[in-house]
Inverse folding.
């Protein structure tokens, strides 16, 4: 027989994808051998036990041309101390589990030359799942939605268990509660009204069901803050201070900010522009408008105060305020007849300036003359009354020969306290040229 290679018969074997371990083709004394391949093993990947005990795995499907195979079981994950193999070298070994849990077992199949190891066989024992909650009692401001923080712990492997979730309202008006999806573990929950609610989350996995309750308190809807301003207009003197009388009709918490909305900003000093009632000072006379802004929860309220700052009154102006009504002092038509320096409202021939210097009441007549003159052996003496506090008024002695042009008397006479200790007197040497004497009373510059 011709056995040269070019005379071999062609033979098509096809594609077997590893299911044939060895093929021999023979024509006469020749043989063709394919290389050995590792055994192919197919087995059930997951088994669940309901309680502690043992399990005999279903015999896997093994494809190999050899019949003399060896087997070896091992624990790939899980506590190996909780797993007992009756015979770790037997394909159908009984396997016992001492505790609940999730275990991954490996099976190695060898034909003596090559081996195949599979570690896809998982054995688990179900236990009731655990619902972990970050906070079971929650307080919400009105209008704020809740997304509960919930985690499910289960001893089953990932994907082996499908959870069934159900949210319900067990206390409170269920019509006021909306779940974005009550079958979701973490839905968005909104509340249409304030109140106390109890929500129940139930999660089931097979025969096991776990639940947990949430206590939810929804606070009443808060209206925008309202500023109660009992003094929207005020007036004060330049040397005074102003403290606003304000209240907030809300519980807050608030932030405040004062600003100058009219007037010279640099002339206004706040003890604390971020407080509700600061102490406010002014360094210049004028009209001002101050604005406060109260903010809470994204809402704002404002209020303004009109403040008129007047100059610091002189001592004489304070004396007028003591003896005349404020409305009278504002009426310029009454200045000449009633409250002006040269007015004499009580008709006692003491004008108001003399009344102020002497400390007498401008509206109560005084019959005693204001100025008295007497002669001694060598001097002319003028006497007049003066109050303990002359209100910053000073006096000078004038002289004139014609009753028209009074000038300071020279030499200037000394003014001293009279003998009665309540009046003043001025002494002038007797023998000066004849003429007329007068007192000049004015505010000290």
């Amino acid at each position: 027989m011709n056995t040269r290679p070019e005379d071999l018969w062609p033979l098509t074997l096809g594609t077997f994808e590893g299911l044939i371990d060895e093929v021999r083709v023979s024509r006469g004394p020749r043989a063709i051998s394919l290389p050995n391949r590792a055994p192919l093993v197919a087995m059930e990947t997951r088994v669940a036990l309901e309680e502690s005990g043992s399990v005999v795995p279903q015999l896997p499907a093994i494809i190999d041309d050899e019949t003399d195979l060896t087997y070896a079981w091992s624990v790939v994950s899980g506590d190996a101390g909780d797993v007992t193999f009756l015979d770790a070298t037997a394909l159908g070994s009984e396997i016992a589990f001492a505790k609940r849990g999730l275990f991954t077992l490996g099976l190695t199949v060898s034909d003596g030359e090559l081996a195949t190891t599979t570690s896809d066989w998982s054995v688990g024992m179900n236990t009731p799942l655990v619902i972990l909650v970050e906070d079971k009692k929650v307080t919400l401001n009105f209008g704020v939605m809740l997304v509960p923080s919930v985690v499910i712990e289960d001893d089953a492997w990932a994907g082996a268990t499908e959870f069934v979730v159900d949210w319900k309202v067990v206390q409170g008006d269920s019509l006021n509660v909306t779940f974005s999806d009550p079958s979701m573990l973490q839905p968005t929950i909104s509340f249409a009204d304030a109140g106390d609610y109890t929500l129940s989350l139930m999660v089931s996995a097979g025969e096991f069901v776990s639940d947990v309750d949430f206590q939810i308190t929804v606070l009443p809807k808060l209206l925008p803050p309202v500023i109660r301003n009992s003094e929207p207009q005020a007036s004060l003197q330049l040397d005074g201070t102003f403290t606003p009388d304000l209240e907030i009709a809300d519980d807050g918490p608030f932030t405040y900010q004062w600003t100058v909305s009219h007037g010279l900003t640099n002339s206004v000093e706040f003890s604390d522009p971020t407080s509700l009632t600061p102490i406010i000072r002014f360094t210049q006379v004028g009209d001002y408008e101050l604005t406060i802004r109260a903010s809470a929860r994204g809402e704002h309220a404002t209020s303004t105060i009109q403040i008129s700052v007047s100059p610091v009154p002189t001592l004489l102006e304070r004396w007028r305020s003591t003896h005349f009504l404020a409305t009278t002092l504002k009426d310029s038509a009454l200045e000449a007849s009633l409250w002006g320096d040269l007015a004499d409202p009580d008709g006692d021939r003491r004008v108001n300036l003399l009344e102020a210097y002497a400390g007498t009441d401008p509206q109560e007549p005084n019959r005693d003359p204001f100025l008295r003159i007497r002669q001694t052996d060598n001097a002319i003496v003028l006497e007049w009354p003066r109050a303990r506090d002359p209100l910053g008024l000073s006096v000078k002695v004038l002289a004139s020969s014609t009753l028209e042009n009074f000038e300071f008397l020279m030499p200037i006479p000394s003014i001293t306290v009279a003998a009665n200790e309540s009046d003043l007197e001025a002494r002038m040497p007797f023998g000066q040229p004849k003429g007329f004497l007068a007192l000049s009373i004015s505010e000290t510059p």
Q: What stands out?
A: The chain is about 5% helix and 45% strand. The chain has five domains: 1-125, 130-218, 227-310, 315-358, 372-443. The radius of gyration is 56 Å. Residues 5-9 have pLDDT under 50 and may be disordered.
